[in-house]
Design a protein that fits this description.
Elements lengths: L1 E7 L7 H11 L8 E3 L13 H6 L8 H13 L2 E10 L2 E10 L2 E7 L7 H4 L9 E3 L4 E6 L6 H9 L4 E5 L6 H13 L2 E5 L2 E4 L2 E4 L3 E3 L5 E4 L6 E7 L8 E3 L2 E2 L14
The structure holds acetamide.
Acetamide binds next to loops.
Amino acid sequence: MNKIGYIQFQPILGNLDANIKKIQALFPLGEKADLIVLPELASSGYNFATRDEALKCAEEITKSKFVEFIIASAKKQNQYIVAGMNEKDGDTLFNTGILVGPQGFIGKYQKIHLFLNEKDIFKPGEAGLPVFDIGFCKTSILICFDYIFPEVWRIVGMKGADIVCHASNLITTNAQKCIPAQAFMNKLFIVTANRYGTEGDITFGGNSFITNPDAQIIDQAVSDKDAVSVVDIDISEARNKFVTSRNHVFIDRIPSNYKDLI
Ligand code: ACM
């Protein structure tokens, strides 16, 4: 058995130090997790009025106080952590998810499908859809609105992801309807770590949740409070890709019929 979980909290817009403090207070509650997931843009908050406002609290990964803090926490708690951050790369901003472990920084994913005003602030991701081998499992990162696109789930599933870390700032509960289907169709675990609270005209929905490869939501948080949850999983459930004795979700694909997708 392994343990995976999420930390749900309410970041403060533009206040990196306050966000580190909030996360620091919650981390010990998730110390038993082998892999724990934080929301999208956990370093900075979400609803920037302008790109300049976002730029002011963005950080380069190699010089980032936030990344250093997450690495220090992963070492202290001997666990893997995925966290959303506001990444600066030269003059470009990305809505990024980092993966770190006891050994330090492992890799990143940059959000591909930007939602509403994010299109004025961030560039669509250029880091592809990596899958990382962290020993007890293979894992990948998706960010919030990415969930609408079945292609990305299929790609990370076919690259071997057992667990998808879905760092989110969700507004509606549509993800709760769609994500169990993706978990089932690709036979993997999904940890959706959402934030809660209001920033300007946007209220975020909390309700972070964990879905198993059988499409069951096995854990769900409340909508409007800090929440840390850790659940036991059997990773072998994500390695059986058969839905019947003669049907395998990847092997049964017939890509020659899918050319219209490209
Ligand atoms: C979203 O992609 N933050 C809704």
